[in-house]
Structures are given as structure tokens and as C-alpha cells.
Write a structure and sequence with these properties.
The chain has about 400 residues and is of the alpha/beta class. It folds into two domains: about 170 residues, nicotinate phosphoribosyltransferase (Alpha-Beta Barrel); about 160 residues, nicotinate phosphoribosyltransferase (Alpha-Beta Barrel), CATH 3.20.140. It is built from 17 helices and eleven strands. α3 packs antiparallel against α4 and α10 crosses α11.
Length: about 400
């Protein structure tokens, strides 16, 4: 069984799920899967993936896991009580070879947001592990260990002693066991330079700090749930602040493109939120513009955190650290390059929300290839509303 605990997911799934329970309990959503690798045939593994999903849906939170969640300062007791009754349901997931052929598979998750939000990360982890254990049955773990050791050596030189990284690699990991080995190696080698992990299960098991706030799906859903489309980003941030009252104060900046984010992220939000996370586009340009935006709003950027999390490797982390250190607080979330770098081409797979309450929703990323929407007319309208130039999808 690939997933043995419902905590084996990213923290931001729980933080968003709590907001859904308290503010949008009736929302109905749809997610779709996409593999961005050309020429990868996933169809031989459909039955195995289905079998793993069936086992995932048998899991329940244990009393020990619920007590762990209850001990997180931002998790509320009624939410933990709800999780005590929760389980994932197979009826919300459809997995089949695509009618388009070419080795593609169709995966659709459709149902109440509150009951489907926890599918994404474990389902992606299942697809990865099934694929790699079938295509690389004798994986060269020693090569992975050599690569990891070389990366960590770059971070532990005295000049980079203040460079702090976190693991964000659950969804695209080579395997569960490999992610755990990577985390334990990082913990033993980096010490204070390891901020923690987004994976709640491993954070609990190994006394690490669980990390995460919000993901794109939250801001996307607010396109349908807010009072007016143009105000959906502001509505999402205000609802978040209402739920967490100053905690979990990292805003995601690229759901509508960075220009639209800066227009909405005014003096009020600059003061209210602790920082901002980068997830697409040029990170250097983004960082410089974010620091300039803080300066224009008379906010000392040295009291704010910039989190970089877009397809990072360690040399890129060091480059960004050297560029911005001393000018703000810094954090780096590294995913695939930590948990799936053994010499094999990682799967570039995603599951994205495409509808909420029957209405199309979309992410207008600063990287056009990350935009995912099944309604071109809605995408064009969204760009018009937010004043974003049309770009190829």
C-alpha cells in the first residue's frame, strides 16, 4: 500500500480544508489530471492505480493523528472533530485510459469540495510510485544518495549557513520510502538549515515542522464563490485572514498573474500578511518587484518573507539566496529535485481544479504552460477582467 496514512499529504490541504468547512461547506468542484511529459504511456498502470485508490479510501485518521492535528495552533477543534468522521470516497474519482489514445489517462475528481480536497496529493504520489516501481524495478538508490549528498554539500558551506530550505516534494516523489530517506538525510545533515516539510505524516513521524498555507485551487474556487469575479482575489485573501486571524500569513502571488496580484495586494494586505510565495515566472524579477512594492507601500521588507518554490534546484536556491539575503526574510521550498532525482526523468504531472459550482475556474500563471482550463471563452473573459494580455495556453 503506497499511502498508509491520510496525513501523507501537504499541510496546505488541511489549512484550505478548514476554510472550506467554515466558509464554503456546500461548494462542489471538479479536478482534472494532466501529464506534461511527452511520450509517457500510463495506460498499463490504470488498474494498479485504481487498486491503490481503493485502499486509500479505506483509511481513517487515527486518534494519535487527530491529536497531532489538534496540537497545531491554527487547527480548530471542530475541524479535527470533522476529520474524525472523514474518509475519502471512490465514487468521486474516475480513472480510465483516454479516448484520445497516445498513452494518456483521464482522471477526473468530481464532488463536494470538502470531500474531494484530500485526493490530489496522495493520488499524484500513487501515480508516481506505481510508474517508477514498474519502469525502474531495480532503481539505483546509490546514485540518488550521491546526488543528494552533493546538493547538501553546497548548502553547508559557511557562506550559506543562513540559507534555509524545506521539502515540498510529496506529490512527485520517486517513492514514499525514498522521500523519507531524503528527509532524514536532510535533517541529519542540515540541522537548522532545514525549515521542515510540507508532508504532515513525515513531520509528525520525525518531529519536523509542517509547512504550508494556501494553493492555487483556493484562489481559483473563489472565482465562483466570491461576490464579483474582479474581486475574487481580494475576497480569497480577506476570507483567509478572517479564518486565521494573522496566522498562516503567506499569500500566493500568481493565480491571476503577478501584475494583477500587485494591484490587489495593497497597503492593507502588505501589512496583514507576513509574506508572499513565488510559484511561476522569473524569480529574480518577481523578487525585485515584490521588494519595490513593499517599499512603495512603506513596509519594511526585512520584516517580510519571500518564499520561492517554483521548480527549484539547489544551485538556483543559492543564486536567489545570494541575491536577496539581508533585504528580506527568505525561504525556499524544493520539491521534485529533492524527492525524485535518481537519474530518471521525473513525471511532470498535476491535478488542477477546473470547475467550482458548475462554473469554469482557471489559473492565469506567470508561466503560460501552467495555465489549465477547459473553457477557452472563460479564460479569455478572466484575462479581460483582470487586465491580462492574451497568451498562448
Amino acid at each position: 500500500m503506497i499511502i498508509s496514512s491520510l496525513l501523507d499529504t501537504d499541510l496546505y490541504k488541511f489549512t484550505m480544508m478548514q476554510v472550506v468547512l467554515h466558509h464554503f461547506p456546500a461548494a462542489h468542484v471538479e479536478y482534472r489530471f494532466k501529464c506534461r511529459n511527452a511520450g509517457v504511456d500510463l495506460t498499463p498502470y490504470v488498474d494498479e492505480i485504481r487498486a491503490e485508490v481503493a485502499q486509500l479510501c479505506q483509511l481513517r485518521f487515527t486518534e494519535e493523528e487527530l491529536e497531532y492535528l489538534r496540537g497545531l495552533r491554527f487547527i480548530k477543534s471542530d475541524f479535527v472533530d470533522f476529520l474524525g468522521l472523514f474518509h475519502l470516497n471512490e465514487k468521486y474519482v474516475h480513472i480510465a485510459p483516454s479516448a484520445k489514445g497516445g498513452g494518456e489517462i483521464d482522471i477526473t475528481i468530481r464532488g463536494p469540495w470538502l470531500h474531494t480536497i484530500l485526493f490530489e496529493v496522495p493520488l499524484l504520489a500513487i501515480i508516481n510510485e506505481v510508474y517508477f516501481r514498474r519502469t525502474q524495478p531495480a532503481a539505483d538508490l546509490e546514485e540518488g544518495r550521491r546526488r543528494l549528498e552533493a546538493k547538501l554539500a553546497l548548502l553547508t558551506v559557511p557562506a550559506h549557513a543562513d540559507c534555509v530550505i524545506a521539502d515540498y516534494g510529496s506529490r512527485r516523489r520517486f517513492s514514499r520510502d525514498w522521500q523519507e530517506e531524503v528527509l532524514l538525510t536532510m535533517q541529519g545533515t542540515l540541522g537548522h538549515q532545514m525549515a521542515g516539510t510540507s508532508n504532515v505524516h513525515f513531520a509528525r513521524q520525525h518531529k519536523m515542522i509542517p509547512l504550508g498555507t494556501m494553493a492555487h485551487e483556493y484562489l481559483q474556487a473563489c472565482q465562483s464563490l466570491g461576490p464579483r469575479l474582479r474581486d475574487s482575489q481580494v475576497f480569497a485573501l480577506e476570507t483567509w485572514a478572517k479564518e486565521y486571524r494573522g496566522d498562516l500569513g503567506i499569500a500566493l502571488s500568481d493565480t491571476y498573474g503577478f501584475d494583477a496580484f500587485l494591484r490587489d495586494f495593497d497597503l492593507y494586505f502588505c501589512k496583514l500578511f507576513d509574506g508572499v510565495r513565488h510559484d511561476s515566472g522569473d524569480p529574480v524579477a518577481w523578487g525585485e518587484r515584490m521588494l519595490a512594492h513593499y517599499a512603495a507601500n512603506r513596509v519594511d521588507a526585512r520584516s517580510r518573507t519571500l518564499i520561492f518554490s517554483d521548480s527549484l534546484d539547489i544551485p538556483r536556491v543559492i543564486e536567489l539566496f545570494e541575491r536577496f539575503r539581508g533585504r528580506c526574510r527568505l525561504a525556499f521550498g524544493v520539491g521534485t529535485n529533492l524527492t525524485n532525482d535518481l537519474g530518471y526523468t521525473p513525471l511532470q504531472i498535476v491535478i488542477k481544479m477546473v470547475r467550482c459550482n458548475g462554473q469554469p475556474v482557471a489559473k492565469l500563471s506567470d508561466a503560460p504552460e501552467k495555465t489549465m482550463c477547459d473553457d477557452p471563452a472563460y479564460l479569455a473573459y478572466l484575462r479581460q477582467v483582470f487586465g491580462i494580455d492574451s497568451r498562448p495556453v
